[in-house]
């Protein structure tokens, strides 16, 4: 083979190699761009889900602010029977035991984010925050967290007919069919004075329920404090995602 021909073959080979290399690089670049775009779409979906959890959590906090107020009234009624009338005492003791039920576990949204998506994010601080979110997801709330001995025992102590009256007039409300449950801040029921006095006297004598109520209220407050911590963390995460997507 002549030198000229050999040089031509060598040049053709180099061209082929370079062409293949460039083709691979272009394909990899396209794949990376597609993966990053998919990651961005996943982040866009994640944001409203986290914000929806925050909305549910705020409704949860508002509900338990009302039960806390009833609990404080009931404790005043146990401490001093003259401070709280019989009917109001029975209502407060019952309403303090109300629970809203569960709210979604924000951690389920972590399933939207995988390790591959995190690697596609070109922001180390956001990568770190998402990794924390995945490995330490919110626990949400569960009915059993607040189904305390107080809730169970006070409903054994208050006559069922009185409970029915309270529930009928002052039970959970849902003003919007798709909205969260609310509890009336004030409640007044038509209860004969003698009936209210007898039931209230029996309830006031149950100092064990007073102690149970204090524990119940402490459990609610502990749950709300944990929820506040999760909401603060999620707010920072949402702000970081929005800044990244801009």
Descriptive account of the structure:
- With 246 residues, the protein is mainly alpha-helical.
- The protein has helices spanning 3-79, 86-95, 115-119, 124-135, 143-146, 149-157, 160-170, 193-204, 207-245.
- The radius of gyration is 31 Å and the shape is elongated.
- It has one domain (41-245).
- The model has no long low-confidence stretch (mean pLDDT 83).
- Helix content is 73%, strand content 0%.
Helix content: over 70%
As a whole number of angstroms, the C-alpha radius of gyration is: 31 Å
Low-confidence stretches are none
What is the terminal-to-terminal distance?
61 Å
* Total domain count: 1
Oligomeric category: single chain
| Helix count from the secondary structure assignment | 9
Average pLDDT over all residues: 83
Broad shape: elongated
Number of strands: 0
- The helix/strand class is mainly alpha
Give the biggest beta sheet: none
Task: Please write the string of helix (H) and strand (E) elements.
Answer: HHHHHHHHH
Strand content: under 5%
Summarize the structure.
By secondary structure, this protein is mostly helical.
Write the layout of secondary structure elements.
Elements: H1 3-79, H2 86-95, H3 115-119, H4 124-135, H5 143-146, H6 149-157, H7 160-170, H8 193-204, H9 207-245
Helix pairs in contact: 1-2, 1-9, 2-7, 2-8, 4-9, 6-9
